[in-house]
Design goal:
- By secondary structure, the chain is α/β, with parallel strands linked by helices.
- It is built from nine helices and 35 strands.
- Strands 13, 15, 16, 18, 19, 21, 22, 24, 26, 29 and 32 form an eleven-stranded parallel β-sheet that branches.
- Strand 2 (38-39) and strand 3 form a beta hairpin.
- The radius of gyration is 32 Å and the shape is elongated.
- The structure holds uridine-diphosphate-N-acetylglucosamine and calcium ion.
Length: 466
Amino acid sequence: MPPSTARPGAPPAPRAAIILAAGQGTRMKSSTPKVLHWVGGRAMLDWAIDAATALGCARIVVVVGAHSPAVGEHARARGVETAVQEPALGTAHAVIAAKEALADFEGDVIVTYADTPLVQGATLEKLFAVRAAGASLAVLGFEAADPFGYGRLVCDEGGALLRIVEEKDATDAERAITLCNSGVLVADRTMLFQLLSMVRNDNAKGEFYLTDVVGLARSSGFRAAVDVADEAEMMGVNSRVELAQAEAAFQARRRHAAMVSGVTMTDPASVYFSHDTVIGNDVTIEPGVFFGPGVTVESGATVKAWSHLEGAHVGTGAAIGPFVRLRPGAHLGARVKIGNFVEVKNATFGEGAQASHLTYVGDAEVGARANLGCGTITCNYDGFDKWKTVIGEDAFIGSDTALVAPVRVGARAFTASGSVITKDVPDDALAVARGRQRDIADWSRSFRERKLAERAARGGKRREVE
Ligand code: UD1
Ligand code: CA
């Protein structure tokens, strides 16, 4: 075998990752493969791929099962390699499925699970440090409050890792061990696959256990070491209950980070973030706000209660809400004001523009300082195609204006309330596009007199409707 321990002072070894994602995920009771369920606004598999990418892994191989091709498609769309494990004969067998893909790779391999979305980059980085410090094999462990079901890390008095024993194969004394296997390990690629070729399935589950490589490494004269991580990070998701627990843990972490970075939240527990939410300092977030993927809020902005944002940008000092919906492509410039029951989709608002109440703005460009009155609607869809509305700077859109796209309202132009605008409005003009008001003198008085007389003739009763 080649030297599997780095020489002191040698440059860091190249890194590769094998992400195990071939399990059935039966307990999710879902037609969606387990690892494609979301935590923090993206698939659990994406957390694993991003963690491997952040570690600087030159190669990433996701091991997928033949039963869920969607997992492979998702991984390849992310630009990583896949290997198929069929049938699933255990975790060692799953890692071996990636052997061919990494045949030309020299360096350290990290094995991770795609259903462990909470593990932090720094924790994995530390495991590489343990490996670089002289261990041939570095295993990530954790102290479990309830170790039931986990593999136990059996160490000698000096703390050196001897072997891993699975729950079902453990003696009573071994079951009393609380130091558990997370499943994550780092080893030299060549050594790892040589040890894997020696793994047998003569155990309680009749599976090829990845964990057996630890004992095999020891008996081949290699040193295995443990790094202990926080149990909260090692949580694996097997059911919808655990999925919700992972989500809650992600949200708690993210809320804390937002406040530490200078965001005010009146009721943090009611605010929901996504993995990529970016919030500037001195932003105030009121209760009940949901940030879907792809949202940026610049410093000094206020997001008032019960607002839902997704794929949107909120500029410096802007104020949105309460009850605002920003859909993908909503881009609000500095000091924009968007008020209650306003929906914005694929539309830009220039600096200082406003839409204060009951408005839909879709596929539009709104110029700086333009004011959209209550009930403004962009009619952007004709049932087949989407069309664009352009509103010039300083324009004033009267209440209850329907803008039938494609249409352009010029700079500083007005539209009269209740107008249905179907043609472009020149700069500085007033567009009136509604029925002209006509007053019929005394119509109401004669109508009421006639009706009251009819009622009196019926003996004061209302007319019965048949
Ligand atoms: C495994 C570990 C155990 C550890 C625990 C941590 C082994 C033998 N045991 O147990 O020591 O404490 O994880 O959660 O490794 N997978 C495949 N192909 C297979 C089998 C599994 O890809 O043939 C994948 C699964 O999708 C999952 C991961 O490997 O992502 C772990 O498999 P699982 O069956 O859940 O292992 P555990 O019994 O929990
Ligand atoms: Ca498991």
